[in-house]
Amino acid sequence: MKLDPQSLRLFISVLEEGTIAAASQREHIAAAAVSRRLSELESLLGSQLLIRSNKGIEPTEAGTALMYMARGVLNDLSGIVSEMREYSHGKRGSVRLLANISAITQFLPALLKSFMEKHPNIRVTLEQMESLAITRSVAESRADIGLFTRMPHEASVEIHPFRTDELVVLLQADHPLADRASVCFDEVLDFDVVSLHSGTHLHYQMLQAANESGRTFSPRMEVSSYDALCLMVQTGMGIGILPKGSTSAYSMPEMKILRLDEPWAQRELSMCVRNVETLTPAARLLFDHLQREQSAETPAVNGTAATSS
């Protein structure tokens, strides 16, 4: 059965206006066409819907029931059109975002909070991955946007600047190096080191730096997150290296943060997409937001590590 929304709308107009002539003027359609549509609607439904008299038109019992149902259907159809327009303008939708641990712990909480306050009907799915896996996933269209630490890769993606971060040294306040303002990586290697696990960009940086100086990089312990790294350093398992902005996320009383005096301690975080011009409206809104908004301030690199209440 094919029920035409236009016929339902004309049916409602006739009942609201009281005459076919008035409804035809309201809907900008000939009165004969309105009358024909009503007859076809009655024939389709197999019920008399209207009582015609010299006083106008009134609904039958079946017509009254149809009036309420038709209004609901037309409202639903209008809602569909309105919601689809929201998708086309980016007011509603979903975005899949991949990010490495450095972007997540330093920048994304504040950025995503402000984005979702502006766009409450856009759902963002965030997943943590390693930098190389992020570029591959975006290239294969398994995600819309990726945030990663800039490094050589072979993925076919567009690269855009995101933020910069700085690696620092975390150690206990009574460590032999604790009275220093800065240390070089070669000095760090004289002590036990707690590192992110192999495969992460930070582990790769430290391994490469050790090889270039003719040293062996053999961490005492490898962990999968910065919170685990901080906990291990706090218990005396060794020295840790992590981004400066990440240190403010953890409570670390009686810990010291030193500057890492190495060129590779200054890092570039980048954003990748397959093609900016082909992003969905919702993904484009997030892309623009991530580029436009400024990151939260990070604590200075001196003195005792920040503690959280």
Describe this protein's structure.
It comes from Ralstonia pickettii (Burkholderia pickettii). The C terminus is likely disordered. The longest helix has 28 residues. The chain folds into three domains: 69 residues, Winged helix-like DNA-binding domain superfamily/Winged helix DNA-binding domain (Arc Repressor Mutant, subunit A); 108 residues, D-Maltodextrin-Binding Protein, domain 2; 102 residues, Periplasmic binding protein-like II (D-Maltodextrin-Binding Protein, domain 2). 42% of the residues lie in helices and 23% in strands. It has twelve helices and twelve strands. By secondary structure, the chain is an alpha/beta fold. It starts with a helix and ends in a 17-residue tail after the last helix.
